[in-house]
Amino acid sequence: MFISLINLFFPRVCSGCNSILLTDEKVICTSCRHEIPLTNFHNNPNNEAVSKFYGRIPLEFAAALFHFQKKGIVQEIIHKLKYKGHEEIGEMIGLWYAEELQNIPEIKTVDFIIPVPLHPRKLRERGYNQVTAFGKALSESLAIPYNESVLVRKVYSKTQTKKSLLKRSELNTAIFDVIYDEALIGKHFLLVDDVITTGSTLEVCSRALLKIPDAKVSIVCMAMSQ
Ligand SMILES: [Zn+2]
Q: Got the DSSP string for 104-126?
């Protein structure tokens, strides 16, 4: 009764279409849940996420849960997650994906879930990394430790960047680094991010992780754009 009253005055709305959620619906309504375009990449070893990184970086596994389409539900919910403080969307996607991934053999060998670190300036502005809730939900559901201290973003001042003669690609490689000890040698890292677009950030992050001797890397994202 109390909850119903709260809903009456502060109705929870669907993050996809803004319609009022029913009591048993969480974050998005049943209709949006059915309309969201799923990739089913995890059941296809030669999926588009794998081909995106083919020849660029050696990966054990790569997948994204949703197809990212402009003006679609996925764009709407990712926007709310990134810019409107709706961290619960990341958690919802993580729980959803964990169910799909739990029986995938490559996922069973993962030792750590690693989020792509947010630029410190963006972290200050936003107050949170939009990937954290997603990564933590995957971590808890799959019982794989979440580690946000291995992969770090190095901070450059503008003047340093200007002075640098490095090409942009080389500079990107230099932006991420790993901090590790012997306990992380030979481990399998699952790198997580929101949307795969060009894949360049994920590529340089993977490259950084592969500096750890005998490391293996896989990638799982919320969505991938065509
Ligand atoms: Zn909806």
A: -HHHHT--EEEEPPPPHHHHHHH
